[in-house]
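Field reference: sequence -> structure
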Amino acid sequence: MRKSVLSSLAQGAASLAFGHLLALVCLVSGLAVTSAGQAQEAVLPAASSPAPGVAASAPASPARKWMRVPRVYGRLGVKDLGLVINLDDPYSVQVGGHYAKARQIPEDQILRVRLPVKGALTRGEFEALQAQIEAFYGDRVQALALAWRLPYAVACNGLAGALAMGFDEGLCGHSCAVSRRSSYFGSAATRPLAEHRMRLSMQLAARDVEGAKALIDRGVASDGTLGLRGGLPAQVHFVTTSDAVRSVRQQLFPPEGKVAQAGLDIHLDQADALRGVDRVLIYMTGRAQVEGLSSVGFLPGALADHLTSFGGRLDDPYGQMSVLAWIEAGATASHGTASEPCAHLQKFPHPQALLLFYAQGATAIEAYWKSVAWPQQAVFVGEPLAAPFGR
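Structure field:
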């Protein structure tokens, strides 16, 4: 199955080196790449609102072709995942208990902490949490499920980004700046901590406890359900909206059409919102608010996100739609940013990387993390171990 996915989608198994993929992303996002491979910041509009003088029409479609990603063998499993529960948060206690039972997480992989229930931790609060995680887990687990909705940030950093790459205080003075590069982006790694010294994390976040339990159950139910011979195809919707700034990822969309060997049907939609679509595996768009989600039929294990500035703020997204709306609508994982990222493509999931790694059998946490080149401001929400193409 994994060989056939790469053969069909990527036209061969040759790897695309990180530097080449970064160069591609830099080129289309308005960054120059020097001969030494260093990204240089260009003047970019904020992702929070369309730039002055930008027309409301969708950008012109570029020539489309499939990118290549490394062939990956294996994925993260229960033995690789730590579960962190906040004893001072009733939501966390209930959701963490449900997740431990649903995924059969051993007691020695469950860390119980005490954290303030608020959007952003201070640096001191974060360092105390980080010290507890390092002392308890050491090198035993590669990734973490954080059983809470709040906190999601450390000052301007996403909590996930800070845990994996260290807190970047300098970024808070200019959150639109180029941020730290993830060596895990686009890689063939199956053990991120051991191979890249990055402990990935994803939050089991929803609007309420019942929503989080439903999210968890969808993730568990998704395992091994797609890419089966004779099965109905999963629908992948890459959407270009009339918001030109937030639709910048359309330059990275693949060709449209059926990929029979992988059981996928790729759609390149021109719409501000999809309505009445079913069997949706991926819904990727660019809007501050996405309407019509109640009419979308998501498959268990679905990934969905919208490029906007504050979708990752889980308490106050400044009037924009939170990623929690995707979870409420039936998605199993999503991504947003905790502070103004500007329209850097590297700070958002790369559409083809997300799809290609997921279709190889990666878990939701791996597919999302491997698709974001600069994840310092990232907020990853969902059920980490969901693996609909896993075998």
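Note: The chain has ten helices and 16 strands.
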